[in-house]
């Protein structure tokens, strides 16, 4: 038997419950199991404390002990009836097989096209039973029917696991969670038992879903709307989820979804007025946004009454990149939970609606799931609803869309229970939604509902699906729709009459003709206690004055706090040296470096009431060993004892400081932080790339959210991105943060791009980001070389006086009238030019630093150039190749600052297909060449 089980992955490695049953028999009486298993367990017993990973050491179930003592299992003289025992064990195998594989035989496909290969493990005969055994009574491990005939057990299993609902939960290793799902569905036999009122409400909602789509299809022929038809049960499912969530105390629900069914959700779930939707179809929508977006990308918010009180719904804005909105939603939820002090996630619930192919096809979801249970990103579990129309974009052949049985298999990475359900059975749909909500609220873990349905039209309404799926769409053309099937069912049950069902359609259409809802579902005068007023951040120019300097006494007091470590806390010698130097820096005994400048900025903001959140793959220490916001005891292993975060211990009443070393997925993490920052304008939210070019993996977030979210959707966001950059001979992947890409995206004062050369500039820039009543993304092109360089450090006086300087003029003692050339640059190349000028003892070349590349400081730069009336040449110098860096993006801005008789020149590396060379010798030669060019008149 053991060899047989080992050869069958479903019965050995994947069937711990069955092996557990055998082990329990062995513990009761070793003679109850066959010789091979007995030998296996004997060997296990001989290794105290060692437990095979497939055989949990569980206590003997008292019910099994009683079972083996019953007369039919014991022959005269006390001998065990081996045949009876064998069949008992086989019954447990059969039950376990249904629990593991029953979903494969469930009736999930409304079109009845789903291939269902025969599974021998679900056949009683496969387990040695005959027709003669059907009336035999056995003991079961099914709660509520501890003893039943084989026929009764099989009927129970088919009803529970092979009806309109298919369950996957046996992959969950947590016994409590696994047994909860098992008992929840088995106690109900996966069969809804809702009352008349709920059935009528469900019919009303599915009617609204279908009728709206049909109305739009006729009224706006050929226009894209990404119809929900075929998946209409999503609307009653969401309604049930919202009402149920409100009843258990959820006060906010943040929803993320792509296009499919979005307009339906806006109208029938969130209560958007149909007349407003019609205006968008007709192009009459008036908006103050400079660009706006298509109607099926727009977000919406509403307050909905529920049995537990009002619940605030927010549908997140999304781009066409489908699932990328998901981590954005999670970030927004985390920020809202933080604002409420909702540590368990009982007040704010994330809900994500997916498409089948996108759910498993886009790597965004792997990253989002990977965030789910981490300290810095968890939201207490997400309810996932997959609108599985079985066709993806145009391909329904799963051999081309995934390498797994189900599109939901990716959720198994976080051991989420998965509830598959037939979309033609609205009551089964709301039953699994009820289970999903209860599971999430109890265990605070992700849960997935797979709504198996179809798509009545093509990818959009202008698409002809028969081109790629002729047979499927012939069946769809014959399908009456979920509403018709459910209405007929309720008519047969006597819940409604045919006239009542028809009147629901007529009433809804009449309301649409008026541009109204059949019933008002939103609260128009409800005031939320945790709402944010964004109006104070509107219309503020980037030059708005900010007093970012801080008295030295305050800096001294705060430094004393964040350089103190607990008694007995052993620091690494190099870290201890850095801490000592920070004390010297604030005292004015040595200049302040970038790491200290950051700490001073964070500490002052925290004590002024602004929370700070920093995340990135190595941001606690800092990739370049400069930050050390998290200190590690060299003699303690345990995280809660061996780690100290000084910025969390500044004052009794200070804002929250969070620093998280993130997962290695830039796309999901940056999207999360964008969502967080949008919902936390009073918090300095920072994402730091380990190297600046690592942000390439998150380009979709930068393009579709960070740089365009305000002009498309009116979403303000103060997210700060720190991108280490600088040509130090480290090769193509560790040099460039791709400055040119960010500048290419700059327009309409949408973002800020800084490329600073001094530590004090970092201090003032970070403080300005929060103190100025404006929320724009801040992109810091941060030099790696300058982080700890003495020559880039600043005197303490630059922190106690002054402000951020968009342009820094020449610091040398030059005769302005003798200057013939003005060099302009940004970042660390300034020090290469400064050294080149000093080595050559040049007195007629001035060097001006542009610290803010966008919004471009035209007035400030023009004033600096005007200081040199005899300079006939203005030269831009950069360390990046000519076709990269800032040159092509700011050339026209430089020309606008020059006199008509001045000539604009360029010095830098020649154009290159690669961001940087990979050989130090070449790097050094290139640097020498363009510095020489800059210094030669």
Automatic annotation (TrEMBL):
Domain Transketolase-like pyrimidine-binding: 592-789
Entry-linked InterPro entries: 2-oxogl_dehyd_N, 2oxoglutarate_DH_E1, DH_E1, KGD_C_sf, ODO-1/KGD_C, THDP-binding, Transketolase-like_Pyr-bd
One Pfam family this sequence matches: E1_dh
Function: E1 component of the 2-oxoglutarate dehydrogenase (OGDH) complex which catalyzes the decarboxylation of 2-oxoglutarate, the first step in the conversion of 2-oxoglutarate to succinyl-CoA and CO(2).
Self-association state and partner proteins as the record states: Homodimer. Part of the 2-oxoglutarate dehydrogenase (OGDH) complex composed of E1 (2-oxoglutarate dehydrogenase), E2 (dihydrolipoamide succinyltransferase) and E3 (dihydrolipoamide dehydrogenase); the complex contains multiple copies of the three enzymatic components (E1, E2 and E3).
NCBIfam families: 2oxo_dh_E1, PRK09404.1, PRK12270.1
Protein name as annotated: 2-oxoglutarate dehydrogenase E1 component
Lineage: Bacteria, Pseudomonadati, Pseudomonadota, Betaproteobacteria, Neisseriales
């Amino acid at each position: 038997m053991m060899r047989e089980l080992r050869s069958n992955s479903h019965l050995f490695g994947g069937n711990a419950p069955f092996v557990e049953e055998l082990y329990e028999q062995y513990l009761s009486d070793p003679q109850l199991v066959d010789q091979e298993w007995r030998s296996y367990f004997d060997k296990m017993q001989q290794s105290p404390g060692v437990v095979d990973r497939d055989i949990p050491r569980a206590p003997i179930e008292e019910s099994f002990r009683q079972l083996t003592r019953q007369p039919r299992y014991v022959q005269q003289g006390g001998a065990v009836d081996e045949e009876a025992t064998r069949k008992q064990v086989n019954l447990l195998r059969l039950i376990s097989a249904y629990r593991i594989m029953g979903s494969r035989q469930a009736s999930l496909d409304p079109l009845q096209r789903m291939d269902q290969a025969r599974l021998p493990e679900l056949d009683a005969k496969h387990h040695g039973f005959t027709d003669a055994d059907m009336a035999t009574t056995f003991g079961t491990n099914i709660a509520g029917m501890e003893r039943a005939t084989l026929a009764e057990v099989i009927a129970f299993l088919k009803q529970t696991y092979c009806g309109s609902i298919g369950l996957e939960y046996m992959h969950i290793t947590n016994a409590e969670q696994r047994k909860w799902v098992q008992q929840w569905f088995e106690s109900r036999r996966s069969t809804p038992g809702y009352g008349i009122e709920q059935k009528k409400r469900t019919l009303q909602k599915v009617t609204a879903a279908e009728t709206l789509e049909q109305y739009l299809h006729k009224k706006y022929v050929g226009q894209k709307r990404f119809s929900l038809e075929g998946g209409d049960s999503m609307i009653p499912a969401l309604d049930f989820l919202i009402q149920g969530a409100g009843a258990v105390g959820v006060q906010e629900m943040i929803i993320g979804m792509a296009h499919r069914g979005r307009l339906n959700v806006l109208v029938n779930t969130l209560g958007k007025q149909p007349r407003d939707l019609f205006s968008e179809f007709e192009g009459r929508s008036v908006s103050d946004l400079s660009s706006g977006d298509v109607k099926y990308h727009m977000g919406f918010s509403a307050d909905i009454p529920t049995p537990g009180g009002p619940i605030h719904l927010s549908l997140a804005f999304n781009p066409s990149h489908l699932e990328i909105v998901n981590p954005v939603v999670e970030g927004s939820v985390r920020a809202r939970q933080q604002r409420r002090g909702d540590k368990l996630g009982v007040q704010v619930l994330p809900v994500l609606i997916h498409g089948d192919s996108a759910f498993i096809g886009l790597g965004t979801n792997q990253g989002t799931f990977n965030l789910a249970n981490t300290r810095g990103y968890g939201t207490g579990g997400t309810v996932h609803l997959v609108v599985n129309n079985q066709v993806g974009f145009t391909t329904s052949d799963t051999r081309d869309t995934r390498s797994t049985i189900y599109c939901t298999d990716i959720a198994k990475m976080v051991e989420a229970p998965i509830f598959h359900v037939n979309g033609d059975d609205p009551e089964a749909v709301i039953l699994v939604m009820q289970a999903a909500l209860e599971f999430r609220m109890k265990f605070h873990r992700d849960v997935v509902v797979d709504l198996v349905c179809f798509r009545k039209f093509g990818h959009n309404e202008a698409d002809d699906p028969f081109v790629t799926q002729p047979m499927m769409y012939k069946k769809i053309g014959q399908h009456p729709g979920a509403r018709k099937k459910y209405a007929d069912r309720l008519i047969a049950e006597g819940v409604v009459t045919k006239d009542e069902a028809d009147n629901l359609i007529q009433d809804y259409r009449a309301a649409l003709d008026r541009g109204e809802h059949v019933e008002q579902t939103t609260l128009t005068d409800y005031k939320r206690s945790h709402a944010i007023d964004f109006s104070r951040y509107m219309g503020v120019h980037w030059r708005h004055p900010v007093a970012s300097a801080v008295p030295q006494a305050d800096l001294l007091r705060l430094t004393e706090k964040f350089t103190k470590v607990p008694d007995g806390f052993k620091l690494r010698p190099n870290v201890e040296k850095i801490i000592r130097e920070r004390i010297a820096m604030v005292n004015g005994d040595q200049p302040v470096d970038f790491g200290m400048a950051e700490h001073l900025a964070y500490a002052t903001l925290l004590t002024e009431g602004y929370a700070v959140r920093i995340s990135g793959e190595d941001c606690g220490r800092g990739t370049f060993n400069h930050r050390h916001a998290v200190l590690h005891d060299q003699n303690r292993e345990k995280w809660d004892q061996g780690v100290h975060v000084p910025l969390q211990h500044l004052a009794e009443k200070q804002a929250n400081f969070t620093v998280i070393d993130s997962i290695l997925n830039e796309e999901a993490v940056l999207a999360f932080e964008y969502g967080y920052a949008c919902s936390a304008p009073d918090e300095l939210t920072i994402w730091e790339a380990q190297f600046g070019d690592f942000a390439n993996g998150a380009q979709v977030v930068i393009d579709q959210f960070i740089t365009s979210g305000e002009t498309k959707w009116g979403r303000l966001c103060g997210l700060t991105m720190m991108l280490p950059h600088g040509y130090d001979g480290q090769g193509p992947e560790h040099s460039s943060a791709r400055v040119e890409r960010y500048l290419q995206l700059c327009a309409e004062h949408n973002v800020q791009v800084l490329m600073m050369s001094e530590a004090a500039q970092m201090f003032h820039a970070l403080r300005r980001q929060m103190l100025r009543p404006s929320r724009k993304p801040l992109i810091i092109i941060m030099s790696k070389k300058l982080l700890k360089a003495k020559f880039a450090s600043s005197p303490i006086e630059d922190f106690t006086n002054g402000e951020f300087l968009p342009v820094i003029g020449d610091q040398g003692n030059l005769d302005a009238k003798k200057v013939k050339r003005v060099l302009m640059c940004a970042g660390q190349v300034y020090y290469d030019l400064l050294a080149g000028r000093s080595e050559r003892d040049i007195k007629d070349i001035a060097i001006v630093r542009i610290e803010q590349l966008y919004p471009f400081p035209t007035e400030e730069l023009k004033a600096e150039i005007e200081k040199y009336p005899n300079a006939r040449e203005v030269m831009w110098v950069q360390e990046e190749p000519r076709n990269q860096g800032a040159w092509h993006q700011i050339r026209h801005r430089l020309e606008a600052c020059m006199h008509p008789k001045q000539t604009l020149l360029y010095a830098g590396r020649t154009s290159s297909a690669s961001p940087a060379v990979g050989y130090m010798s070449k790097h050094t030669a290139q640097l020498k060449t363009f510095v020489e060019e800059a210094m030669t008149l």
